[in-house]
Amino acid sequence: MGRGKVEMRRIENKISRQVTFAKRRNGLLKKAYELSLLCDAEVALIIFSGRGRLFEFSSSSCMYKTLERYRTCNSNSQEATPPLESEINYQEYLKLKTRVEFLQSSQRNILGEDLGPLSMKELDQIENQIDASLKHIRSKRNQVLLDQLFELKSKEQELQDENNDLRKKLQDTTSCCGENAVHMSWQDGGQCSSRVLHPEHDTSMQIGYPRAYMDQLNNRDHVACERPGGGSSAGWI
């Protein structure tokens, strides 16, 4: 049965941590010694424990010689890097400068400037480029106009629908008011006619014939007087 995989995290138990440190430290020192012996390599190993105790191994006679060699190689690599980066930056600068000059020259040619050194082929290319740009600009302008027209039509339709709704509401309100007015006038007319057709009787005391009957007799006598012959007694004579 194989050994299980050890989880790579800090060991919380202090005793277990010290035991593991001692075992792995010895194994690391052994590996460094074997590497220097088998491969004829110059190896330097420095270890500080959790308590600050130093453990070291050097394949050479002195640790300081190995450290000095490391410092020299590191400083040389750092000094050699800036010239390389400067050269790359300078080459990039030259490329960008050439590109900017070409774009500026093309812009002047499109504006109709500095056309003297250009050949017929280059002039045709500039003309075709300008025509293509004009077509693209006109197409974009027409598209913008169509979008604006569609938006205006949509707003017009919305306003028309709103106007129709308001007109319908106004007609409904007017018709309701008209029906109410006719109904009220009909009721008022019925009440007035009832008053005319059915007058209230006068309960006051009267002496003699009623006034309406006397007016009827007077009207009959007046009509008889207006007949030829001068009166109602002319027929008897």
Query: How are helices and strands ordered from N to C?
Result: HEEHHH
Tell me the Rg in angstroms: 62 Å
In terms of structural class, how would the helical and strand content be classed? mainly alpha
Please give the count of helices.
Answer: 4
Largest sheet: 2 strands, antiparallel
Q: Terminal Cα separation, in Å?
A: 171 Å
Mean pLDDT: 77
Helix content: over 70%
The dominant shape is: elongated
Q: β content, as a range?
A: under 5%
Unreliable sequence segments? 190-201, 230-237
Q: How are the strands of the largest sheet arranged? A: 1-2
What is the total tally of β strands?
2
Provide an overview of this structure:
By secondary structure, this protein is mainly alpha-helical. Among the domains are: 11-59, SRF-like (3-Layer(aba) Sandwich), CATH 3.40.1810.10; 118-174. It is 70% helix and 4% strand. It contains four helices and two strands, in the order αββααα. The protein has helices at residues 14-39, 63-110, 120-197, 211-225; strands spanning 44-48, 54-58. It has a two-stranded antiparallel ribbon. A hairpin with a 5-residue loop joins strand 1 and strand 2 (54-58).
Which characteristics define this entry?
4 helices, disordered C terminus, 237 residues, mainly alpha
Quick summary of this structure?
The protein is mainly alpha-helical and 237 residues long.
Task: Map the helices and strands.
Layout: H1 14-39, E1 44-48, E2 54-58, H2 63-110, H3 120-197, H4 211-225
Antiparallel strand pairs: 1-2
